[in-house]
Amino acid sequence: MGAPEGARAALAHRLQWAYHRTDRDWVGLTVGWGRETEHDGNRLQTRPFRALGLSGRHELSTQWALIWDVGWNRYRQGYARTGVRLGVRRTF
User: Fold this and answer.
1) Are 51 and 80 contacting, i.e. CB atoms less than 8 angstroms apart?
2) Does the model's pTM come out above 0.85?
């Protein structure tokens, strides 16, 4: 729950599920909903949203892993935001 100065309070919820094949190899699902406060260029607005995300980490070796995220957010005014991230992670 957050309430920036000049905006209404925004309450959001997030539910996560993950399947771990090993300690370092997993796939996860995230579902979110509630209200979010954003700045539209002129003022702060609090509006409802829904979100869905899928992510994973897959071990390539003892030091290297492939990481990825796919996400989708939708707001009441018909605005939707999607994104994909892909990367590598090194463990020291």
Assistant:
1) no
2) no
Measured CA distances, 29 to 15, 19, 21, 66, 69 (Å): 8, 9, 15, 17, 10
β-bridge mates for residue 89, sequence order? 65
pLDDT at residue number 56: 97
Mean pLDDT of 21-26: 92
pLDDT of 37 > 90? The answer is no
Q: In sequence order, what are the residues at sequence separation of 6 or more whose Cβ sits closer than 8 angstroms to the Cβ of residue 29?
A: 16, 17, 18, 52, 53, 54
Q: What sign does the CA torsion over 41, 83, 73, 55 have?
A: negative
How far is residue 87's CA from residue 63's CA, in Å, rounded to a whole number? 14
